[in-house]
Amino acid sequence: MTTNRTFTMIKPDAVENGHIGGILEKITSAGFKIVAMKYTQLSTRDAQEFYAVHNERPFYGELVEFMSRGPIVAAILEKDNAVDDFRALIGATNPAEAAEGTIRKLFASNIAENAVHGSDSDENAAIEGAFHFSGREIY
Ligand code: ATP
Ligand code: MG
């Protein structure tokens, strides 16, 4: 079953570089409705758990350190075909390979510090949304 929701984070690099407003503008202009949002910071343990799927990868330690080093914006977004359309809007993991006009092309620094997260499946969108938000925080 496909759903119309995805989950995103504006990562610590983009927050540090003053890009919250610019990224939210791209998201809402592309037709995504924000149904939940918070400014928060991941603990080391939160980041380990959130990215547990990558715990065998060589960059896991670096990723956990990066994702927990400063505040993020977490949000649940709603739109038809949300997961795939949002992955298209953010662009490739490596901003050097991201298409023109994508959020990572515009705002990301490099493959590690790449400005935004986007869920890669409906199942993960639901898991990741529930990691950050309770039912009464979703509108
Ligand atoms: P995300 O899950 O954050 O939306 P993604 O799905 O495009 O990104 P993944 O393969 O899931 O990419 O990797 C998760 C994150 O790990 C990347 O967004 C990036 O921050 C980091 N990462 C991925 N590959 C590398 C790498 N080769 N070196 C350093 N960090 C990396
Ligand atoms: Mg991913």
The kinds of small molecule bound in this structure are: adenosine-5'-triphosphate, magnesium ion
Order of helices and strands: EHHEHHEHHEH
CATH architecture: 2-Layer Sandwich
- Please name the CATH topology: Alpha-Beta Plaits
Query: How many distinct folded domains?
Result: 1
Report mean pLDDT, rounded to a whole number: 97
Helix-residue proportion? 25-40%
Going across the biggest sheet, name each strand in turn: 2-3-1-4
What is the subunit arrangement here? single chain
Class from helix and strand fractions: alpha+beta
Low-pLDDT regions: none
What is the terminal-to-terminal distance? 22 Å
Sheet with the most strands?
A: 4 strands, antiparallel
CATH class identity: Alpha Beta
Strand content: 15-25%
Count of individual beta strands: 4
CATH level 4 superfamily: Nucleoside diphosphate kinase-like domain
Total of helices: 7
**Cα-atom radius of gyration:** 14 Å
**Backbone shape:** globular
Keyword list:
four-stranded antiparallel sheet, 139 residues, 40% helix, binds magnesium ion, Alpha-Beta Plaits, 7 helices, binds adenosine-5'-triphosphate
